[in-house]
Each structure stands twice: as C-alpha cells, then as structure tokens.
C-alpha cells in the first residue's frame, strides 16, 4: 500500500488544476498504516447522511427516442443499443439517462457513485451542466471517480482530471471531498495501489457497494468512451491487463497510446457496475463498434464490457454505420 497522501486528501481542495498545488500543500509523510481516503469525515457518518436536504426531482428523466433506432444485437439480456442521427440528441438523452439514475440512487441509498473515462466522453456530458439538470440534480450526493488516469500532473493537457474539471466539474457543485483523483506524484504502480486502497476504504464506510455476485466494488454508473481500436479505460487490445481477474486497479507502463504510464480499473470492476453507458461517436470507430457488438474477428476490449443491471451503448449514426 502506498504510504503517501490519500486520494481523499488530494481531492479535498477542489480548485482548478493550475492552482491546485499553490492553494493546498500536501503532507509529505503519512504512516504506513494510513488508509487511503481515511479521514474523521468518513468515519463519522454513513451514506445516508451524505449531502443535505431531500433528493430533488429531475423532470422527465425517461429516455425518449429522437431520430433514433433501437437495435438488439442477438438476445443478450441487460444490453441495449441506442443509435442517434445527431450527436446533439445523443448528448440530450445521455443527460436524461444519467439524471434518472442519479435521482433513483440518491433516493434509494443517499449517494450516487459515478465513474468517467476521458476523451470525447466528457464532451458528451455537456447537457448535465445546463438547465434543467444543473439546478435539479442533487450534486451533493455525487461521488466522482475515474476509470483510468494518466500519471501526469493535474494541469497537464493529457490529464483526465483536467479534462473533466475544465468541462464538467468546475460547472457543478459536487463537494470537493467527493471527487477522487489519483496521486500523480507516485509511480504508476504505487498510484494504482493507492487508488485501490481508497476504494476499499469507501467500501468499509458504505459509500461504495460491493457486488454480491463478484465481490468487486459495484459503482452505480460507469460512463465509458471507446477508442478507434476498441479500447476502453486503459485496457488495450492484446494487452495482458485485459485478463486481470483479481486486482481492482492496475498500472500500465507500456500503453500503446501516449502517455505510457497510467492506472486503470480492471474488467471485473467495470463489469460489476450496476449500470454502464458506452458512448461512441464518429465513423472512425465504426469497425470497432461492429467487432465489439457482433463479436466478429478479433473482438476488441469494448466487446468484453457488461453490467450487472444494464449496459447501454449510445451511438451516433456514423459510429453505427457498419452494424
């Protein structure tokens, strides 16, 4: 376990990546038995007390079809594919989908645990920072994580934290202590261990649930993008990490896409999520979409994604052109 600062302490000052270090000086040493994310804040209450006030109603959160076709690939249960003529309509319905789940879990368990990737996914979340969602979602109950991250400074152009902060996190009132960034000052291996320890502590404090069927953490919603090669998170085609079956978070030092050093959730964690949205746009990803959904040729990592309750593929028309 990493002996450096916790991801909770690193997220406690939720300021811009540029000002992060000047505004908050991290302790230089923690005892070896110091749990990642450990804090009297977490030890003093359960999930039911997260946030203040009652859950807010999100108006009309049902997904509506707008110039869209729903396609069944085989007879796989718990999976559906939504195809949109316009990316704008995809973004609108993705916001409704997310807001609906936020409302559901905030009412049921007092918290909503959300995981995002980087890349074009963050742009597709833009409707959540607009009316009516920015004012109606109970942001105080959100807990925000990354499915993967590049081991670079938070103000670096390759940082998934910076991407999410600039386009999303800086525009919504999620409590600073509920945003869980990696400790990029560590090596990739140590940062992965640190983040996994953070997740295990959140399980102990009942913020994160555990899947009864797998024993891995069960996030409420996993929001994923996909690369042109069909990779998800930092799980790339042909890489041995795609077969990891025991660890929650692993490091990668030979990523085929720069930067080379990253951390990533494993497939058992991704697939233990209650709900997963796989958001893919653009004709450059059409072949990977075809291979992932129709299981043709060398099935890319995206074809291994599943969910315990529901997996939804959100595709624009160009991305679905080879289905």
Automatic annotation (TrEMBL):
Task: Spell out the CDD domains in the cross-references.
Answer: 6PGL
Q: What is its EC number?
A: 3.1.1.31
Keyword Hydrolase on entry: yes
Which biological processes are named by the entry's GO terms? carbohydrate metabolic process; pentose-phosphate shunt
Pathway(s) annotated for this protein in UniProt: Carbohydrate degradation; pentose phosphate pathway; D-ribulose 5-phosphate from D-glucose 6-phosphate (oxidative stage): step 2/3
Q: Name one Pfam family in it.
A: Glucosamine_iso
Q: Please give the GO cellular component terms listed in this UniProt entry.
A: cytoplasm
Q: Which InterPro entries match?
A: 6-phosphogluconolactonase_DevB (IPR005900), 6PGL (IPR039104), Glc/Gal-6P_isomerase (IPR006148)
UniProt keyword list: Hydrolase
Question: What protein name applies here?
Answer: Probable 6-phosphogluconolactonase
Enzyme's top EC category: hydrolase
